[in-house]
Amino acid sequence: MSITRYGAEGGTGTGGQHLPFSSAVEAGGFLYVSGQTPMKDGEVVEGGIVEQSRLAIQNCLDIMANAGYETKDVVHVKVVLTDSRYFQSFNKVFKEVFGEHPPARICMVCDLVVDVKVEVDVTCFKAQA
């Protein structure tokens, strides 16, 4: 079994800091996407929970697509919200994206290291040929 690391050179976080982890790692048919926040080019994109949720999920989808995975390949999602009042709004966005292929999920509330409302990571699976 081989391991492929995507974005192993690390991305750019807030304040231009280097992020010392891969954006995703593939092993044994699984793709593990690192937690994504509503950021573009290392900067937080301001907005409400709906806008921030869409961008955090889209960042996951972009990384997945780069590795050859699709929404239907997502088997588990982890969600961190900074306020429990965001739960219903997040669910609406989640259903828009995953409605046809709903994965298993955990959603929790806690502080985040970056000043955002949401962080999302995904685990995907595709049987190897």
From TrEMBL:
Annotated CDD domains: YjgF_YER057c_UK114_family
Pfam families, A to Z: Ribonuc_L-PSP
Highest taxon above the source species: Bacteria
Bilayer-crossing regions: none
Family, as annotated: Belongs to the RutC family.
Name listed for the protein in its UniProt record: RidA family protein
Lineage: Bacteria, Pseudomonadati, Pseudomonadota, Gammaproteobacteria, Alteromonadales
